[in-house]
Please model this.
Amino acid sequence: MLHYDGTSWSSVMSGTFLNAVWGSSASDVWAVGCCGTVLLHYNGTTWSNLSGGSTQRLLGVWGTSASNVWAVGGGGTILHYNGASWSSVQSGIIEDLWSVWGSSATNVWAVATGGGILHYNGTNWSAVFGGTVDVLFGVWGSSASDVWAVGGVAGGPTFLHYDGTSWTAAYAPPTIDVSAIWGTSASNVWVVGWAVGTPQTMVHYDGTSWSTASSTNTEPLSSVWGSSASDVWIVGAHGTILHGTPAR
Model:
């Protein structure tokens, strides 16, 4: 793990393989990995490991508060944290779940291998067909009526959009294999991934159309997040860290 203090990055040893990180504040951060027994929590001072009661690898984590956190992973694994302990929740599928995001505690989405999309309404998780058989690696939205699910691999990139009623296929730039998605609004969305033999590994949505973004980076990119439109962090292979306002 790496930590940024506003000036520089420093290494923090975790002792295990990690896939995703999320936090509700500077003193409440979760990192998940392999396997379900690896749920690392940071309280603002130290990291500790809590058991989730699963043996599956965990691939994504997200929540609405310190007492409402979701972790998803291999074999359809869904774990929930209520502020005191983690518990397993039935997903109804056996495919790997790669990412989780929601607009509220009663509107949560998770995406899976085979194009599976799951929705949580505050009570139960249910399967929603996304119209693709590709792997969906990332999900993010600006609101309950503006949600994106992205992925691909075998058949090229896949971009799906939810308008509050249904999921439909959207145009996907052909030069990128997708890893992750994040944005600040419905008119400022970033998708990162990898494009073999080319440095063009980012695409941007302006609310109307997707376009390839300029980049001199040639390393595969795996995740993106920021605090604002001008403070965006992108990370990838071989310790790649990009920061700033991506050119487009």
Observations:
- The radius of gyration is 17 Å.
- Residues 2 and 132 are 35 Å apart (CA to CA).
